[in-house]
Specification:
The protein is α/β, with parallel strands linked by helices. The protein has eleven helices and nine strands.
């Protein structure tokens, strides 16, 4: 509780002093054999504690709703960054941004995010949203409407951590997600055991049949890389290809691939 209070007390100061930084992890296009796009991941660069990973502060800020402000701040940083790249004449690839499921219950959520996209003149499709599987246990009707609102404006939504909980694949496929990111635990199990690999394969096939694409999360080894290739995964993310990196490095990494 003391730690929680400490993090909360420093939140405002951290925002105003720009201590929250965006790291980017490239996504690997498995069939194309090159990087394509990236995921934005927040880091807290504290002058006292150094780099604090999101696993420490995101749950705290979710418990007191400060995450709403933080997510919006990160989203705007990414929109601003994309605009800067475009203005310099770079060819920009999509960046996905994590958003807490708490946003769903915020009045004006869709309008605020669309407003930021317009303010920074980000062309449709260049910024995407990641929502974790747990969102399926919220108000499904509200979720469906929210996804439709974004889709109409050309903002793709990815389901994050699919398979980490018990969301039903049919209900997920009934909603307008563009991509399903398959949770790392499924991959870890699949390399260990044949039946888990068969399950992974059938999930990928079902997703593909619905016209959605698949991302394998947390690929760490050559063996896992071989497995996901054999399973027909579209894209992959993991330390095997590239770790999350600061803004200075991301462009060269993606363009050089
Ligand atoms: P996530 O969205 O599932 O992000 C993927 C996490 O896996 C990242 O951890 C990434 O660094 C890590 N990762 C990538 N490749 C590998 C790998 O090969 N092996 C292993 N073991 N890990 C890998 P990170 O950056 O620490 O973020 C943790 C979580 O914090 C994220 O999980 C996401 O749920 C949350 N998060 C991060 N940024 C934001 C944000 O801006 N807003 C919100 N609401 N949540 C965020
Ligand atoms: Ca994510
Ligand atoms: Ca994930």
């Amino acid at each position: 509780m003391v730690r929680q209070k400490e993090l909360e007390n420093h939140f405002e100061e951290a925002v105003s002093q720009r201590q929250f930084e965006v790291y980017y992890q490239p996504k690997y296009d498995v069939k194309g054999g090159r990087f394509y796009g990236a995921e934005a991941l927040v880091r807290w660069n504290s002058p006292v504690e150094g780099m604090i990973p999101p696993g420490v502060f995101v749950p705290v800020f979710e418990s007191n709703s400060m995450i709403i402000r933080l997510d919006e701040y990160i989203f705007e940083q990414v929109c601003r960054q994309i605009r800067q790249w475009l203005d310099r004449g770079f060819v920009v690839q999509p960046v996905s941004v994590n958003i807490s499921r708490l946003h769903l219950y915020q009045k004006g959520f869709v309008e605020r995010y669309l407003g930021l996209i317009r303010r920074w003149h980000v062309p449709p499709g260049l910024v995407e949203l990641e929502l974790t599987e747990t969102v399926m246990f919220d108000n499904e009707e509200l979720l469906g409407e929210t996804l439709q609102d974004f889709r109409r404006e050309g903002v793709p939504i990815l389901m994050d951590d699919f398979g980490s909980g018990f969301a039903n694949l049919d209900s997920v496929l009934a909603l307008p997600f563009k991509v399903l990111k398959i949770d790392k635990t499924l991959l870890d199990n699949a390399v260990e055991d044949e039946s888990a690999a068969a399950l992974y394969r059938s999930v990928v096939e079902m997703i593909g049949k619905q016209g959605l694409s698949t991302v394998a999360e947390g690929v760490e080894t050559a063996e896992q890389d071989r497995l996901i290739r054999s399973l027909g995964i579209d894209e992959a993310q993991g330390y095997f290809y590239a770790k999350p990196m600061p803004i200075e490095d991301i462009f060269a990494t993606i363009q050089g691939s």
